[in-house]
Write a structure and sequence with these properties.
0% strand; 84 residues; globular; mainly alpha; 5 helices
């Protein structure tokens, strides 16, 4: 679980779980913007690669439905768009 999220950055999958379980991250952007701020380092990868990974982990931890996952992804991308 200590696998890197993206090869060129030090952030790991374990940090996603820690953010959810220990730091009470509730939304995908809580993770990609605040806990492992990949959105500020590589926005394109954050949207295309990291957010889907974060959402899959959060969905498993929080028992989200497919509809909830889709809604969370849409909301997260809109949030990233507002940071431009």
């Amino acid at each position: 679980m200590n696998k890197k999220i993206l090869e060129d950055y030090p952030f790991t999958e374990a940090e996603i779980l820690y953010a959810i379980r220990e730091e009470m991250a509730q939304k995908p952007n809580d993770v990609v913007c605040r806990r492992v701020p990949i959105a500020f380092c590589d926005r394109k990868s954050a949207e295309e690669i990291v957010l889907p990974k974060v959402i899959e982990v959060m969905a498993k931890e929080k028992h989200w439905s497919a509809e909830q996952k889709a809604a969370e992804l849409k909301e997260a991308i809109e949030g990233l768009d507002s940071m431009k």
